[in-house]
Amino acid sequence: MSLYLRQVGVVVWKDLLLELRTRERIAAMAAFAVLSGVLFSFATDRSVVRAQDIAAGLIWMTIVFDGLLGIGRTFHIEAEDAAMQGVLMSPAPKDAIFLGKAISNFALLYAVALLVLGVFMLFFGLEIGSSPGAVLLALGLGSLGFVALGTLFAAVSSGTRMGETVLPILVFPLLVPMVIYGAGATGRLLAGRPVAEVAGNLKMLAAFALVALAAGAGLFRFVVED
Amino acid sequence: MIVAAEQERALAASVHESVGTGAELVVEAKGLVREYGAVIAVDGIDLTLVRGDFLTVFGPNGAGKSSLLKMLGGMMRATSGTVSIGGVPLDFSDGEWRRRVGMLSHQGFLYQQLTAEENLRFYGKLFGLDDLDRRVRARLERVGLADRAHFAVRKLSHGMRQRLALARALLHDPELVLLDEPYTGLDPAAASVLRGVLQELRADRRTVVMVTHNLAEGLALATRVAIQVRGRFAWQGVRADIDELRFERLYHQVVDDGAGVRA
After folding, report:
1. pTM of the model
2. Of A173, B95, B156, B239, which has the fewest beta carbons less than 10 angstroms from its beta carbon?
């Protein structure tokens, strides 16, 4: 394995190990996912709107808010004892550090996205449709794009006084395409429509994730350097 | 009256002379300036260090010593001026020059929830070090933390964390070691470990820049000494040319007089 991949890997290992030890983010994100599912199920009148018509949008909005809750704190563990400074003083390329953090955030967010899906299926009485793989793919691609932007902007906001307050203001406008294509694909798939009908949405989600990852990897150094 | 800038030039000239005779140039800083808004923390420092130099920088709080160290270590950009490590200009890329620098700062750069060993392994892998098991074991033993290898950093005392931070800074065998107030908060046992490690660095002819308020510790191993006041080296000289008592008097005189000039 090349040194670059080992450097990416050790950042992933460190982040996931820290999360496993503290459970700081996953506990809050999981609780938020469950509470959102419960509240939305009480807040919607199923005699007026059908569950499958609104569930996809609510699922994606829950993922977005939940993601901000967790990804926003990704640099808090780095701020303690200025650990990030030590990482930045190593010869590891900044894009490797970014990718490592994005991958660990992806693992976290994707797990939560699956939980959100499960919670909404339970409380809204949804079925996963005829293409469960495509539903999981849509959530995976959306989560990947989200963490790429989220990790970059969490680094930006961690250097500001307003911190987590600034993060949604920076990230929300950029997430609009992801929510549109993600909710569109998920809604149709949950309604049992064929995968071919959402192929364009999935491609757009993949393109969004790739562009966000490339932009994040390229811009990260400018954000974290003094 | 001896103007500090003239001293810097004279000392640099003598160092350049020794470089010419085969000494290996490790650090070269020219016209380093660091401004924080209207405040000038470092004000045009020139510095040349060859292999084996042990420079101790003294100075009052707010003199810009930590800022100087951060710029030498590539942790902070200079507002103007340049720094070269081993002839390679610091360009803030992820260059190989980072392997040549080890820094012990006010903060340890340690993850509190990871164990001492996990922290060192993490940094070792970031540096792409070979033989990591042996290296981590050796460093922990050297700083007296072998029996605490599996303790989370948050459960270690301040002195232990400082020793672990030292092990981290030296894990990759850097040729330039930067130490910012390394004796602060250490108990006598921890200070003794640090002293021993510094003696080894000196014997191994590593280049060291140490910032400290502790005159005795700072002078003990130094080959060169500087007093930084208001961002400038108000005085610098060769350690062998001045005894501790005279230096203490000189220090107070220089600090009281302000930057740039001494009587």
Report:
1. 0.89
2. A173
